[in-house]
Amino acid sequence: MERRRLQVRGVRKRRELTAVADRTRLIHPDAILAFCTIRNEKPRLPYFLEYYRSLGVEHFFFVDNGSDDGGPEYLAGEPDVSLWHTDAWYRDSRFGTDWLNWLKFRYAHKHWTLTLDPDEFLVYPFCDTRPLPALCHWLDQSGIRSFGTLLLDMYPRGPLSDLKYCEGQDPFEIAPWFDAGNYTIDTNPKYGNLWIQGGPRARVYFEDEPEEAPSLNKIPLVRWDRKYTYVSSTHMLLPRGLNQVYDRAGGEKASGCLLHAKFLDSLIDKAAEEVERRQHFARGREYDAYYKRGQTGDGLWCNWSERLTGWRQLETLGLMSKGNWA
Amino acid sequence: MSVGFVMMAHNALHRAGQVARHLADHDCPVVIHVDRRTPEADFFALVELVRDKKNIHFAPRIACDWGTWSLVEASRGAAQMLLDLAPDLNHISLISGACLPIKPVDQIVEYLHAHPTTDFIESVTISEVPWIQDGLGEERFSMTFPFAWKRQKRLFDLWVDLQRRTGIKRRIPAVIAPHMGSQWWCLTRKTLENIFNDPERATFDQYFRKAWIPDESYYATLARRHSDTIESRSLTLTKFDFQGKPHLFYDDHLTQLRHASHFFARKVWPGARKLYGAFLGPKARLTDDGRAPQIGLDRVFSEAVARRTRGRPGLLMAGRFPNEGFENHVTAAPYAVFHGFDDLYADFQIWLSETIGTRAHGHLFAPENVEFAHGQAGFSGCLTTSAALRDYNPESFLTNLIWNTRGEHQSFLFSPRDSQGISKLLARDPNAVIAAISGAWALPLFRSGLPIEKLRAKAARLQRREAAHLTRLRERRTRARVRIWTLAEVLENPTEPLNIIQEDLSVPGAAHAQTLPENLPMEGIDLFLQELRNAGMNPYTAGSFGERNAPIVDANTQTQAPEVLVNQDKR
After folding, report:
1. Which of A82, A124, A228, B147 sits at a 20 to 30 Å CA gap from B384?
2. CB of A19 less than 8 A from some CB of B
3. Could B320 and A321 be called an inter-chain contact, meaning their C-beta atoms sit closer than 8 Å?
4. Minimal CA separation from B286 to chain A, in Å
């Protein structure tokens, strides 16, 4: 059984992790947890922590994959962070999924759990007035175990290098634009999840090979159970029932957006580094594309780009849904 | 004369305690029943929280299962206790720990004082009114339910199934008529005492003990037997979702709750600090007279039900991806497809946008790239002109285009030269209005002036594609509105399709163009088609020329009913 195999894999990979700061004793039974892998992403961390703290995340789990920019030291000093370190290969751990699967197996049982990249910011219906505990409480009441999202790529107007991102800054101040309606959807018969592609990356980088464009379907929020496991990033889970975050009879299930603050000036250096490392999905071919394009300075912005104003806008545009949460 | 409260609590006890203190502060005695299953520590924290209030009491704790008799037992015990403790009470109100008073307590007391003999309890007959959102109806009273639905779900379902199969029914005691309604009531002392001291109480207990969700029917039924004046409504505002679970109230509902006409709201999310602060805090503002219409909340919640069950037509997203046949409209709005027209008429696109007020695109599915209106390099929603992106998922491309332009009518040109990936979607989409001239593909070939031998294979390919598409549009299950002319018919009367388009498709307010588009050169097309035929390629979709009464060449050339665009949906 694939689920068992992935679990065993995660458990084996635990040997690659060394605890740097373990504050897991402080976790309350009903705490909402966040899990994240980082590599040289120090400038992003302060705002990331601030954003999710204000939404009601109580404890953060980080796996540091060999950063040398002071990020781990910063995280180790935060009161609500537990940190692990590894120098193992990102690719061999299925892009960090194995490491985080193990940490969740060990610490997240029965908790509402967010699995994120440091450039992903969850937006859901009513997120300006109702914190995450309200969402999780409602999901519990409705008997829902997992919450689906669209990964929404956000970008600045003009070339990436034009605006400098400062540590602690809200990235969407400089990258407030997004594509509103060019997403393609299909189902993945093997795991039952949706397969969503499109957005600015497909439009600009993958114009000629759309099938290679990155997946934008993500299920980052799960009422975790030891029996669960992510298959690939947070795109899909096992058991398959957890991937049923969409309605097939015509209705809309409540869903959110993961705002993706990937396209900042730091991406240019990052792309150069990753092209060297070849540690990312499909050997980082996505980064190849950014690297080439980033240097020529073409922006992702176009005449039809929308500027973010809030969750209600995303809801009206049909990028997320209130479902029957009112 | 005053009012006392029985409060049923099982979690978020700090909120229950806060509400109880608020009521007690206004001289209303409160008896709290805490579920036996609630952890001891939580219970004692609550006891500690209200220790200084002499008019808050605790009823003996009973283990409660949702939907079972235990809830009636618990509320009855607590109500009896309250009657005994406070002999001057005239009304007893049953609330839950998740209820929030949304009117000043004085106003509640005053209101009840003005109606000293009225029992406020929602009580309707099940056979006449569909009160239940989702679940068991009359079977609640004719079956037995010994299992807890939440804890023993499988046994519960098996047992219900067994009773349905065998058809065994219970007898309802002759002296009562089953009624039901919200379990949150406000009854007079007299009615309550009569219910509790009913000589047949043992019979009723015996009966309701095995009924389903007796807390929604026990009081509703017995109040009918004992009350003089029933006002059949609950003083507690409760809204149910499509599965019959109560909607929760949050901080952002504050304004609507202020306008609600009820005295309590249920359920409130325990974390709704602003709500609890606004209604219980020291600066709790006096609300208006409650006569303001309650439209706000009603609409919010009925919209939520609609969104969850029917969704927004034509939207595909992370939370909505309907199976084929469940779309409730494949696309978001009506649009028009003109098949073959631009091969016949000059500047047809311009004429279209002037005449029927549509956003007239060119060949959106042209093989080289997407031809948006006015030759734009992109379109609403950041759609691009890349044919590769479009052809990767042509159906998504079209549904996106229509979704992105809600409010503006769209139309586009189509031809067998175009990529045919949307053919199936067009056929099953009731929003698609398709006008087609079959065989028009022959005109550009004819005008190219190339020798027949070079065109033959191409003509055959185009005709094959067109025939496949038109066959789909003519199927019985096709839901698009389709009108097909053959090239031969149009050449005989070139203005007919244009007139029909103008009459039938004009967007309201569009200025009708007085002129019709000119025909492109087509002298000798009949000879060209004959040449094709001579070369062995029968261009049957073009129809038959010259002799209108001649037998039709192929079954597929049969045209639809001659009148205006037929809505096949209405068959």
Report:
1. A124
2. no
3. yes
4. 23
CB nearest A150 (choices: B251, B318, B380): B318
Q: For B477-557, where are the E strands, in sequence order?
A: 481-486
Name which of B247, B383, B386 is nearest A207 (Cβ-Cβ): B386
Q: Which residues pair with A64 in a beta bridge?
A: A38, A85
Q: Where are the alpha helices (DSSP H) in B437-481?
A: 442-448, 452-474
Which amino acid belongs to residue A168? G
Q: How many Cβ atoms from other residues are within 10 Å of residue B38's Cβ?
A: 18
Q: Are A118 and A48 in contact (CB under 8 A)?
A: yes
Residue A138, chain B, CB below 8 Å: the answer is yes
Note the pLDDT tens digit of each residue in A120-179.
Answer: 999 999 999 999 999 999 999 989 999 999 999 999 887 777 788 888 899 999 999 999
Q: Which one is the CATH code of B2-238: 3.30.70, 3.90.550, 3.40.50, 3.40.1350?
A: 3.90.550
Residues of chain A contacting B312 with CB distance shorter than 8 Å = 252, 318
The pLDDT score that the predictor gives to residue B356 is 82
- Predicted pLDDT of residue B566: 42
Chain A environment of B404 (Cβ under 8 Å): 180-181
- Candidate from B250, B307, B323 with C-beta closest to A252: B307
CB contact under 8 A, B242 and A183: no
Strands of B78-183, DSSP E: 89-96, 100-101, 118-120, 124-125, 179-180
- Percent of chain B having pLDDT more than 70? 89
Query: Worst-scoring range by mean pLDDT, A52-56, B323-327, B561-565?
Result: B561-565
Query: Nearest Cβ partner of A255 from B319, B380, B403?
Result: B319
Across all residues in chain B, what is the average pLDDT? Answer: 84
- Which residue has better confidence, B210 or B127? B210
Q: What is the spatial distance between Cα B69 and Cα B145, in angstroms, rounded to a whole number?
A: 10
Q: Look at residue B213 in the predicted model and tell me its pLDDT.
A: 83
| β-strand partners of A151 | A258
Rounded to a whole number, what is the distance in Å from the CA of B7 to chain A's nearest CA?
Answer: 21
pLDDT exceeding 90 applies to what percent of chain B?
A: 42
Domain segments of chain A: what residues? 2-316
- What six digits make up the tokens of B109? 């007391």
Q: Using CB atoms within 10 A of its CB, is residue A91 exposed (0-12), middle (13-18) or buried (19+)?
A: middle
The two structure tokens encoding residue A52: 């999710």
> By the 8 A CB rule, do B272 and A129 touch?
no
Angle (nearest 5°) at CA B275 between B123 and A33: 110
**Is any Cβ of chain B less than 8 angstroms from the Cβ of A29?**
no
What was the ipTM of the complex prediction? 0.89
Side-chain-side CA neighbours of A198 within 13 Å: the count stands at 29
Q: CA-to-CA distance for B540 and A166, rounded, in angstroms?
A: 69
| φ, ψ (nearest 5 deg) of residue A149 | -140, 165
Residue B104 CA to residue B290 CA, distance in Å, equals 12
Give the A window 158-217 contacts with B, CB below 8 Å: 179-187, 194, 196-200, 202-203, 207-211, 217
Helix (H) or strand (E) holding B400: helix B394-404
Q: Using a CB–CB cutoff of 8 Å, tell me whether A310 touches chain B.
A: no
Expressed in percent and rounded to 5, the helix, strand and coil fractions of chain B are: 40, 15, 45
Q: Are strands B236-238 and B264-266 parallel, antiparallel or unpaired?
A: parallel
Q: Do A209 and B393 touch (CB under 8 A)?
A: no
Lowest mean pLDDT among A205-219, A275-289, B146-160: A275-289
Measured CA to CA in angstroms, residue B552 lies from A139, B73, B347, B437, B492 at distances of: 63, 82, 32, 17, 16
Q: Is B32:B56 a contact under the CB 8 Å cutoff?
A: yes
List alpha helices for B2-150, DSSP H: 13-25, 40-49, 70-85, 105-114, 139-142
